[in-house]
Design goal:
binds magnesium ion; alpha+beta; 10 strands; globular; eight-stranded mixed beta sheet; Nucleoside Triphosphate Pyrophosphohydrolase; binds adenosine-5-diphosphoribose
C-alpha cells in the first residue's frame, strides 16, 4: 500500500510519528513507536487498529466540568480498552477498523467513518508480533450519544464488548475521585496511556493536568474513603 490513501489527502508515507509529552515518555508508550510505513516492514506481524472516539461537551455536573465525551468500552476480558481489533490479512487498516467498530459498538456513522485523517500512532510489539495502530476520531455530541445508544444492538455486545463507558475527565474535590480513580481500572495493553495521549493531542487536557492526574491516581493508597 503506498501513495495517497482513499481520501487522496494524506500519502501514507507522510503519516507522522507523534511527539510524546514528557509526562508520558514511559517505556510502554515509546518502545516500538514508529511510522506507519516503517512498521509495514514487519511483514509476518499481525496488525490491529483501535480508535478513541470523542465529542466536545460543554457544561458541568455537580461533580466537575465535562470537557468532552470520550468513549472507552468494557472488554470480554474485564479490562477497559478502545473499540477496534485485528485487521484481516490484505484488508486496509481503516476498513478493518471501521468493520471492527461496527461489530463491537454498532459504529454506524456511514456519513462519518474513521479515516486516515484520524490516524495518530503506530506501535510495534515484538513480543506479541503485533503492529498496533491508534486513531483519534472527533464526532459531534449528537453522533456520540447515538453511538452510545447503538452499542447494545451491536453484533459483539455481550460477547467481546460489555458496553461503552464515558470517561470522567474531572477530578473531584477529594483530589482522587473522577479521572484519577478511573485510571486505576485495568486496561488492555497501553490503552490507559493512549487515553491520556488522546487527551493531550486534542487539547482536552494540558500536559500539566495529565501530570497532575497521574500523580493523584497513584495516591490511591491514601484510602478508600476518598470515594
Ligand atoms: N493497546 C495495546 N494493545 C491493545 C490495545 C491497546 N489499547 N487494545 C487491544 N490491544 C491488543 C490486544 O491485546 C489484542 O492482542 O490488540 C490485540 C487485538 O485487539 P482486540 O481488540 O482484542 O482484537 P479483536 O479483533 O477485537 O478481538 C480478537 O482476540 O483474544 C481474542 O477471542 C478474542 O475474539 C477475540 C479476539
Ligand atoms: Mg476488539
Amino acid at each position: 500500500m503506498s501513495g495517497a490513501n482513499k481520501t487522496g489527502v494524506i500519502p501514507l508515507e507522510e503519516l507522522p510519528v507523534p511527539q510524546i509529552p514528557k509526562c508520558l515518555q514511559m517505556r510502554t508508550v515509546t518502545t516500538g513507536l514508529m511510522s506507519y510505513v516503517e512498521a509495514k516492514n514487519f511483514k509476518e506481524y499481525r496488525e490491529a487498529a483501535h480508535a478513541c472516539i470523542w465529542a466536545p461537551q460543554e457544561g458541568r455536573s455537580n461533580f466537575g466540568e465535562f470537557r468532552a465525551a470520550v468513549m472507552m468500552h468494557l472488554r470480554f476480558d474485564g479490562t477497559f480498552g478502545f473499540p477496534g481489533g485485528l485487521i484481516k490479512p490484505g484488508e486496509d487498516v481503516v476498513d478493518g477498523l471501521n468493520r471492527e467498530m461496527a461489530e463491537e459498538i454498532g459504529w454506524s456513522l456511514t456519513d462519518h467513518p474513521v479515516t486516515w485523517t484520524d490516524y495518530y500512532s503506530t506501535q510495534v510489539e515484538h513480543s506479541k508480533k503485533m503492529i498496533l495502530h491508534f486513531f483519534i476520531t472527533r464526532v459531534t455530541f449528537d453522533q456520540f450519544t447515538s453511538l452510545e445508544r447503538n452499542c447494545p444492538l451491536a453484533l459483539e455486545y455481550g460477547i467481546e464488548v460489555f458496553g461503552t463507558v464515558r470517561v470522567p475527565l474531572y477530578t473531584m474535590r477529594n483530589m482522587y475521585s473522577g479521572l484519577p480513580a478511573f485510571l486505576n481500572n485495568k486496561f488492555i495493553g497501553t490503552a490507559k496511556q493512549q487515553l491520556l495521549l488522546a487527551m493531550y493531542h486534542t487539547n482536552i487536557l494540558t500536559e500539566a493536568e495529565i501530570n497532575d492526574v497521574i500523580y493523584k491516581s497513584q495516591n490511591l493508597k491514601l484510602g478508600p474513603s476518598r470515594f
